[in-house]
């Protein structure tokens, strides 16, 4: 039960992170959060967004794998 719940949390957070990273790839200036310390700073480059996308998809894939594995074991 705990494995299934953690798998769903991983897959949902990974999916949410993937959607956010796709948004930052499409519109990096619009997706930048407010920063009082550096109000006119440039957004991070596309490399960081791609890395975030890959990590998010890996977490989502791990969650789906664990969910299927726990469903087969039950």
Automatic annotation (TrEMBL):
Segments crossing the lipid bilayer: 50-67
Keyword list (alphabetical) reads: Membrane, Transmembrane, Transmembrane helix
Question: What domain of life does the UniProt record list for this protein's source?
Answer: Bacteria
From the broadest rank down, the organism's phylogenetic lineage runs: Bacteria, Pseudomonadati, Pseudomonadota, Gammaproteobacteria, Lysobacterales
Q: Which organism is it from?
A: Lysobacter antibioticus
What protein name applies here?
Answer: Transmembrane protein
């Amino acid at each position: 039960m705990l494995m299934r719940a953690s798998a769903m949390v991983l897959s949902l957070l990974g999916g949410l992170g993937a959607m956010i990273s796709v948004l930052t790839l499409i519109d990096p200036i619009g997706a930048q959060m407010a920063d009082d310390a550096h109000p006119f700073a440039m957004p991070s480059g596309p490399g960081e967004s791609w890395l975030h996308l890959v990590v998010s998809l890996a977490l989502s894939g791990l969650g789906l794998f664990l969910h299927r594995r726990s469903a087969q074991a039950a």
